[in-house]
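Tokens in:
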């Protein structure tokens, strides 16, 4: 499912028009991204938690040339599913 299909599903489940559903989905995703960029986490009870994790610098190997490459430390987004989502997927 892509962003457009998600917006269509939201429009079908609510009384929003397709255009307003697209705006709502875009607003939610933008807000999550902005919050993560600020270093905060987003917790949606029953669904899960979006957070930023620190990844340490490491040495990796290029499989084609077998040359070692230094990968710098960085921040990456992460998602941890909540119990409600886990239960729904398991059924």
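Residues out:
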């Amino acid at each position: 499912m892509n962003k457009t299909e998600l917006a269509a599903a939201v429009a079908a489940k609510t009384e929003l028009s397709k255009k307003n559903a697209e705006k709502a989905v875009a607003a939610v995703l933008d807000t999550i991204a902005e919050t993560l960029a600020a270093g905060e986490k987003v917790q949606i009870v029953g669904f899960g938690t979006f957070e930023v994790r620190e990844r340490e610098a490491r040495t990796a190997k290029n499989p084609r040339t077998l040359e070692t490459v230094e990968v710098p430390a960085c921040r990456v987004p992460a998602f941890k599913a909540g119990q409600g989502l886990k239960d729904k997927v398991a059924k």
